[in-house]
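ESCALATION

Customer reports they have been waiting on this structure for their group meeting. Please prioritize. Original submission:
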Amino acid sequence: MAEQDVQRNGHLADVIHPTRSPVADIYLGRQPILDRGGALAGYELLFRCSRTGTANVADADEASAQVLENTLGSFGMSAILNGHPGYINVGAGLLMSNALEAVPTDGFVLEILEDVEFDDAVIARCYALHAAGYRLALDDVSPHRPVPDAVLGAIEIVKIELTCTPAAQLPALVGRFTRAGKTVLAEKVETREDFEHAAMLGCELFQGYFFARPEVLASRKSCGSRAPLLRLLTVLNAEPDLQELEETLKANPDIVLQVFRLANAAGSGARESVRTLREAIGRVGTTQLTRWVQLLLYAQGSDVPLRANALVQLVGTRARFMELTAHRIASRQTSCEDLAANAYLTGMLSLAHVALKMDGAELLEQLRIGTIIRGAIERHEGQLGGLLTCAVAAETHDEPALDAVACRWPVLDRATIAELGISAAQWVAQQCG
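Update from on-call: job pushed to the front of the queue and completed.
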């Protein structure tokens, strides 16, 4: 759809240029960790979604990725940590994924959450991270959490949760880890008596309400910064080698997490989940990955989920509709797959310049889009331009334009267009669900 199409349909203009602030509030929890003498020894960094300190964590890996993004990007390590280590919660998914390689080895301690089970693969991963220079800690250790001796060689810090450890069992628990040469951190220290008792038993670090509750830091970030996504999409459009694609993805930790989710969903019948980014890329495939990034490009900066984002639904349905119509008109041609792939890309990019508020020619040049697709988007030229005209006509119920499409391609009669429109909408709902 060209700019004039948007102007002609005011309701679409509201979708593409929603009334919302160009900046958003972001929050980060920070709780100090102290040594025996009361000196600051680090901070635990916590996911927060409001100034009041609420967390509402539905996915531990997503929360950790958000904490890392805010610390490294929006706030900055120096402003948040001031040279002290930052403790970050790490669940099983993030622990086993290559997304962790986007985290600097210096400046952070990776706290392995209490629900991570130490099978052979997890233990091997811990040693690999340790060898790569990462500092690992065990979070929320208590008598109820099995910690095999085999993993301790990769662990530097053990956090013992006082409120879940009976006083009679605390000496043996602390002693086990101090004898193994580990630094023991007493967490949930709520009284002076808790602190003095833990220190007497050999704990070196302390964290809890007795010292300080987590403070909530607030900042502002721009909504709609799409530069990393544009860079990734540019690389994908250039048919990159696997190494280049891996390196580009690692600069986008939140996208890496989604790649692993897509990979594991695609292989739900497989016996094992993917464990490396390279495996994930191979299972998802560059076509699916490109399509996902294209949808994210339209959703970036919006607080609305993909499944409820009207612009994402519109663009995704248009692209899929054009792909399906391309298959119909090219069914007897050897170029069917190429035409369908180009039709999908044409539909996906046809609103990009409006959504990004960029000059259309500049954006298409930046993304290295070829002259045929550019002609289709800018001037509705050729077969792709005709399919784009068909898609826009179906969206706007432009009867004369639909009649012209049927004259050009009799296979695209009104009933077929309606059928393909429904199929396209259903497909997008599945992709975003």
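Sent to customer with the following note: Residues 294 and 348 are 7 Å apart (CA to CA).
Escalation resolved.
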